[in-house]
């Protein structure tokens, strides 16, 4: 494989030539763009390393000439005078990548491996012919998504309130839109409202509308978002964060199909379908007094749970193709085996939203070529807030995964005491925390734990706490 180096500094040409030879490439070095254009064409040419500041024709101006001469060969721009303008011009001119001087050997070899990986190994698949899917399409073939599709179809055939639950980033609004688009109200408006995002001082006026002169700036009558959704569907996102005083008015609107504008005395009839979503367990909020039980029961008629991406990993290749098809630089991209392996094993705490960001980030870096694992951004360490029970469940699952050896053998002695090892792991911190909350009072701690005081004493001795 031949690589052409175009740089007027002999020391850089020599150093790059030595490095490329060590990596198994044939290097040809020239000192100007004019010399490069005089080189004979060869099918073995795989890459051009091009300096920006050259005598005669500069590197940026030479790029279209080199492409005309050598065809679609990757061109990597090198410069010691990099700024935003240079970077933008290089990318706009078709540079495949950008290296800053002084050059680092590791950066160069990494770039070679990334750009020429397709030449040395088979990619995951041939360059796909992707069609752009409609924005907002629900994508998936996993059992978890099949359940969602079935529930969407059932919900769309009726007009009952729907509550969509699930972690942040799982696509709850997409599910709501699918229900609307497949229902009898599809020709009418779909009005999404993120309740926490509304101005706290004007939230009632935003939802219910207002009469002229009600407050400073109310120069005319204005209908609210609830009335704007009449005939269609109202999507109440993050319903769990709704203030209690507003919950009362929402309940009345849902129950009696009427709204009263702020400053008004006569209610107006409205007719909309209610779809709500939350990433919090509303039952727990009801127990804590933060959510009205009557509103919960009114919304909790038909529940659809949006699955976390980690619970439907088999959909990741489909989602990958779907999101790549949606951006111009991704439609010809191919995902390498290593990148796909990385995508499949990540926890995706931010779910599909985080996954989409990662794919689009990688597609921009790959410039329509092979997406390697190093194109992917670092995985997010943030975990979704799924409530105390959800967080505890995930911790238990993670602990169990780590406890299992790579080759599972039910007769293995290492697995025979998994349950007892788990109990010993969680019991000590539970006892410590309960005793601390009770001020060291063992009688009170035993009562709260639901065990006899003598049993507590025995467990404290076994845990080394007494």
Automatic annotation (TrEMBL):
Keywords: Activator, ATP-binding, Cytoplasm, DNA-binding, Nitrogen fixation, Nucleotide-binding, Phosphoprotein, Repressor, Transcription, Transcription regulation, Two-component regulatory system. The modification 4-aspartylphosphate is found at residue 51. Residues 2-116 form the Response regulatory domain. Residues 138-364 form the Sigma-54 factor interaction domain. One of its GO terms (cellular component) is cytoplasm. Its main location: cytoplasm. Transmembrane segments: none annotated. It comes from the Bacteria. CDD domains: AAA (cd00009). GO terms for molecular function: ATP binding; sequence-specific DNA binding. It is found in: Cytoplasm. SUPFAM superfamilies: CheY-like, Homeodomain-like, P-loop containing nucleoside triphosphate hydrolases. It holds the Pfam family HTH_8. One of its GO terms (biological process) is regulation of DNA-templated transcription. This is DNA-binding transcriptional regulator NtrC. It comes from Caulifigura coniformis.
């Amino acid at each position: 494989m031949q690589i052409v180096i175009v740089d007027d500094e002999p020391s850089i040409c020599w150093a790059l030539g030595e490095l490329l030879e060590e990596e198994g490439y044939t290097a040809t070095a020239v000192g100007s763009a004019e010399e490069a254009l005089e080189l004979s064409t060869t099918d073995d040419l795989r890459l051009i390393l091009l300096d920006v500041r050259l005598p005669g024709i500069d590197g940026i101006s030479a790029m279209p000439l080199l492409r005309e001469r050598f065809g679609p060969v990757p061109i990597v721009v090198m410069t010691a005078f990099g700024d935003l303008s240079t970077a933008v011009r290089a990318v706009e001119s078709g540079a495949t990548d950008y290296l800053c001087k002084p050059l680092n050997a590791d950066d160069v070899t990494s770039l070679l491996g990334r750009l020429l990986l397709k030449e040395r190994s088979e990619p995951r698949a041939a360059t796909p012919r992707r069609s752009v899917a409609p924005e907002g399409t629900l994508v998936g073939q996993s059992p978890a998504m099949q359940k969602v599709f079935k529930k969407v179809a059932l919900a769309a055939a009726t007009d009952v309130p729907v509550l969509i639950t699930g972690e942040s980033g799982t696509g709850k609004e997409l599910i709501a839109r699918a229900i609307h688009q497949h229902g009898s109200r599809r020709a009418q408006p779909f009005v999404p409202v993120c309740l926490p995002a509304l101005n706290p001082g004007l939230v009632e006026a935003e939802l219910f509308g207002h009469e002229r002169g009600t407050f400073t700036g109310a120069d005319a009558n204005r209908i609210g978002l609830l009335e704007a959704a009449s005939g269609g569907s109202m999507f109440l996102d993050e319903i769990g964060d709704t203030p209690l005083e507003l919950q009362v008015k929402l309940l009345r609107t849902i129950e009696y199909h009427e709204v009263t504008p702020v400053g008004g005395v006569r209610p107006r009839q409205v007719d909309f379908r209610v779809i709500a979503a939350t990433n919090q367990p509303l039952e727990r909020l009801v127990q804590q007094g933060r959510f009205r039980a009557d509103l919960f029961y009114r919304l909790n008629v038909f529940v659809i749970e949006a699955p976390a991406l980690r619970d439907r990993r088999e959909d990741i290749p489909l989602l990958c193709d779907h999101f790549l098809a949606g951006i111009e630089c991704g439609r010809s991209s191919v995902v390498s085996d290593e990148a796909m392996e990385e995508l499949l094993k990540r926890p995706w705490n931010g779910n599909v939203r985080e996954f989409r960001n990662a794919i689009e980030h990688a597609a921009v870096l790959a410039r329509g070529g092979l997406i390697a694992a190093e194109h992917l951004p670092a995985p997010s360490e943030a975990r979704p807030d799924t409530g105390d029970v959800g967080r505890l469940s995930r911790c238990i699952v993670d602990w169990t995964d780590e406890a299992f050896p790579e080759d599972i053998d039910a007769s293995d002695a290492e697995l025979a005491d998994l349950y007892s090892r788990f109990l010993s792991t969680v019991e000590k911190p539970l006892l410590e925390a309960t005793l601390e909350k009770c001020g060291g009072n063992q009688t009170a701690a035993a009562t709260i734990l639901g065990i006899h005081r003598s049993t507590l004493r025995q467990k404290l001795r076994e845990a080394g706490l007494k």
